[in-house]
Structure formats: structure tokens, C-alpha cells
Design goal:
two-stranded antiparallel sheet; alpha+beta
């Protein structure tokens, strides 16, 4: 039903509306997208927790995935007058094997958080090659960093932000919204892809 709701909102947005009606449609669209995000987060977490989410292992271009993720938040950055930079190490292979859609999901989650919690300055994504030795031999891995000049996280709250339904504190939930599931999903996805996730931050 929610897909139908968003579909009809899009159709309504393409009709002749006055300024007031169009502003209502835009608010409807924003609310529907927010609800879709909440539902997707809950479903994804349930699948991951139950071990039911199947990951792909296909060849993909990591730079393309990152650039697509940046493009998805660029408009939001421009609206807030934030810079959005990419530092790409040329030592990263042109193609990797893995699940590009899940990598995109993790990056988009981190980027969306960065935009949400940053009011001035901006965001920088860095990608560095990492060599990892396993039982199967040497594997090419990539370290992704999403750095922002946002509000930061205190030392005491860094330990809880990856727990499900947890946010740094009540004021974050009140001022910024969200389900508190995004980073838990990122942690489960990275673990399932053979990686790990962490945070370095200081308040302010």
C-alpha cells in the first residue's frame, strides 16, 4: 500500500496545482519517504537478525557505487551549503567482488547521518586499499571513512550507537528523528560482508 501512496503522490505532483497545494504534496512525499525508511529498516534488521538476508558476491566497480551514493545526498548538502568531497586512493582495484547494493546501503546510511547532524562545514568520504590475509590467501579489501564536521558524539555514547533502537541521547531523537536502527543494520551488514565498522568522534 505504501508504494501505491508514493506512486499517487508522484502523479499528483505532476498535475496543475497552486502553490499551497504543491507545498502539501511535497510534505506528503517527504512523510511517505520517511515512513518507507522506517519500514525498510525494521524489515532489514529482522532479516539480518534471523540470518535470512542473502548477500550477493558479484564483480562491481566500487568507485561507481561510492559516486552514486554521493549523488544521492548532494542535493541535501547543497541545500545546507555543505561541502561534499571524495578522496579516492588509486591503489583500490577497479573491480571488486561482493554485494554492491549492500555496500551502497551502508554508505548511504552513514552519509545520510552525516548530512543530518552537520549544520556547517561538510562531509568527506575517503577510500583506502587494505590487504587482508585469510585462509583463502590474500584478499583485496577497502576501508571507507565518512568524516563530517557535525555535532560529534561523546565518549560515553560511542558505545551504544550501534545497538538497535538506540540513539546517542533523547535530544537527538527529538531534534533529528530516526528509528535508531540504521547503524545496527550497518554493523550487521559489514559483519556479514566480512568487514567491521567503528567510530571515532568527539563532542562538538
Amino acid at each position: 500500500p505504501l508504494h501505491q501512496v508514493t506512486g499517487f503522490i508522484d502523479l499528483l505532483d505532476q498535475t496543475s496545482l497552486n502553490t499551497e497545494q504543491r507545498s502539501y504534496v511535497r510534505l506528503l512525499k517527504s512523510s511517505a519517504q520517511g515512513l518507507m525508511t522506517v519500514i525498510s529498516d525494521v524489515l532489514d534488521y529482522s532479516k539480518l537478525e534471523a540470518g535470512k538476508m542473502k548477500l550477493e558476491c558479484i564483480p562491481y566497480e566500487p568507485l561507481s557505487v561510492v559516486e552514486g551514493s554521493l549523488a544521492a545526498v548532494r542535493t541535501s548538502c547543497e541545500e545546507k551549503k555543505l561541502y561534499l568531497n571524495l578522496e579516492w586512493n588509486k591503489g583500490i582495484p577497479y573491480k571488486l567482488k561482493g554485494d554492491p547494493n549492500r555496500l551502497r546501503q551502508v554508505l548511504l546510511n552513514l552519509l545520510s547521518n552525516a548530512v543530518k547532524f552537520t549544520q556547517q562545514g561538510g562531509i568527506c568520504v575517503r577510500a583506502l586499499p587494505v590487504k587482508c590475509t585469510s585462509e583463502e590467501g590474500e584478499k583485496a579489501m577497502v576501508r571507507f571513512e565518512v568524516a563530517d564536521t557535525g555535532i560529534g558524539i561523546s565518549a560515553e555514547h560511542k558505545t551504544i550507537i550501534f545497538r538497535k533502537y538506540q540513539q546517542a541521547n533523547a535530544s537527538v531523537a527529538r531534534n533529528f528523528g530516526g528509528t535508531g536502527l540504521g547503524l545496527s543494520i550497518c554493523q550487521l551488514l559489514t559483519k556479514n560482508m566480512g568487514g567491521s565498522i567503528g567510530v571515532e568522534s568527539e563532542l562538538g
